[in-house]
Design goal:
The relative contact order is 0.24. The chain has 303 residues and is an all-alpha fold. It has helices at 16-30, 32-38, 43-67, 79-99, 105-112, 116-125, 133-150, 156-161, 165-189, 195-217, 226-250, 256-262, 265-278, 284-301. Helix content is 73%, strand content 0%.
Length: 303
């Protein structure tokens, strides 16, 4: 008896609409660090509220899919990757949110979005998605751009001014690994279930995990101000329901490697937003890194 293959076929030519959806979702996620900074709750608690406020939107999305009869019997066996996605995303948001308390938004976002390194290799070795030469080139360009963006951090003056940044950066790297697992799990789940259903179930599981961690660590769970409430609401509706929802939708057309490379885009969005809002001005090296990331995104668009 032969074992069913777990290899995922690469869609030949994702349309412009799916690319726009992918980029729009990535842009929404780029503002998550800003929202977390304004939220006056703990890291895991912020993840809980992010999931909670997104659930009604995701439930409506799932109901719409059912009315359109998108789901079918052949797509009903994707429970394990959905559960894995929920757990992995909970770890990702908790570590990323925690890193913002110890390092800059730029560093946290850039290091947290280096998951393409893990995704490309894992998708190749485990899922059979062999990257094309263009994707590998985009990967190297994206990594080079990200390194240029964080290069000023390694100067002695910056290191002395930010004694906790190493710990914060380590948390962000952990978030990157967790997000890589999430991307691969979501890509696998899209072979069996529709985007709304995946988002709803994985987000509900993520919310349960986050609130359990928040209680265990004794975090502040309820926002203490109107600003805090608005921030967690924006996390749920903008960064998660819209951002992750569109990315989950696009992953039905893109391979995990290509989609994960586009996910470097939120790092650039975060750098620009932090510059405008918190005066975290990028250096010339960071500016060149941003251009490299834009070039990598264009390479991904061409497949």
């Amino acid at each position: 008896m032969t074992t069913p293959s777990l290899a995922l076929s690469r869609p030949a030519a994702p349309g412009l609409a799916m690319f726009v959806a992918l980029m729009t979702g990535a842009t929404c996620i780029g503002f998550s660090g800003i929202f977390v900074r304004y939220a006056d709750v703990g890291p895991a608690a912020a993840g809980f509220w992010r999931m909670l406020f997104a659930l009604p939107v995701l439930a409506a999305w799932t109901a719409f899919e059912r009315r359109k009869a998108i789901s079918g019997a052949a797509r009903s066996h994707g429970w394990w990757p959905i559960a894995l996605a929920g757990f992995a995303f909970a770890v990702d948001v908790t570590l990323y949110n925690a890193s913002l308390g110890f390092t800059t938004i730029a560093n946290a976002s850039l290091l947290g979005n280096l998951s393409p390194v893990v995704v490309v290799l894992a998708a190749w070795l485990l899922l059979g998605e062999k990257p094309t030469g263009r994707i590998l080139g985009a990967l190297l360009l994206a990594i080079g751009g990200a390194l240029m963006l964080v290069l000023p951090k390694f100067t002695s003056s910056t290191a002395a001014a930010s004694p906790g940044s190493i710990f914060g950066d380590s948390l962000a790297v952990g978030a990157a690994f967790s997000y890589a697992v999430y991307i691969i799990a979501i890509r696998r789940a899209r072979d069996f279930a529709d985007a709304g259903r995946i988002g709803l179930i994985s987000s509900a599981l993520c919310a349960v995990f986050c609130i359990a961690v928040a209680i265990l660590l004794g975090e502040t769970i309820l926002p203490q101000s109107l600003q805090g409430w608005l921030a967690v609401i924006a996390l749920g509706l903008v960064s998660h329901a819209l951002g992750q929802g569109l990315i989950t939708l696009a992953l039905g057309q893109y391979g995990a490697s290509a989609a994960s490379l586009v996910m470097v885009w939120p790092a650039l969005v975060s750098v620009l937003a932090a510059w405008a809002i918190f005066a975290e001005q990028p250096s010339p090296a960071q500016a060149f890194g941003g251009v490299a990331i834009l070039a990598a995104v264009l390479l991904v668009r061409k497949g």
